[in-house]
Amino acid sequence: MNPSRPTIRDVARQAGVSHQTVSRVINGSEEVLPETRAIVEAAIEELGYRPSAIARSMARGSTHTLAIISPNLTDYTFASVIEGAEVEARQHNYFVLSSSASDPQAFQGLVDELVGHRRVDGLIVINPYADDRYQHIPNNFPVVFVGARSHDENVCSISLDDEKVAYEATQHLISLGHKRIALVTGPMEEDCSQDRLEGYRHALKEAGIPFDQTLVFEGDWSASSGSDALVDFVKKGDLPTAVFAQNDRMAMGVMRAARDANLNVPDQISVIGVDDMPLSSYFDPPLTTMRQDMPLIGQEAIRKLMDIIQNKTVEQTVLKLPAQLVVRQSTFKGGD
Amino acid sequence: MNPSRPTIRDVARQAGVSHQTVSRVINGSEEVLPETRAIVEAAIEELGYRPSAIARSMARGSTHTLAIISPNLTDYTFASVIEGAEVEARQHNYFVLSSSASDPQAFQGLVDELVGHRRVDGLIVINPYADDRYQHIPNNFPVVFVGARSHDENVCSISLDDEKVAYEATQHLISLGHKRIALVTGPMEEDCSQDRLEGYRHALKEAGIPFDQTLVFEGDWSASSGSDALVDFVKKGDLPTAVFAQNDRMAMGVMRAARDANLNVPDQISVIGVDDMPLSSYFDPPLTTMRQDMPLIGQEAIRKLMDIIQNKTVEQTVLKLPAQLVVRQSTFKGGD
DNA sequence: ATGAAAGCGCTAACAA
DNA sequence: TTGTTAGCGCTTTCAT
Question: What is the reported pTM?
Answer without folding.
Answer: 0.94
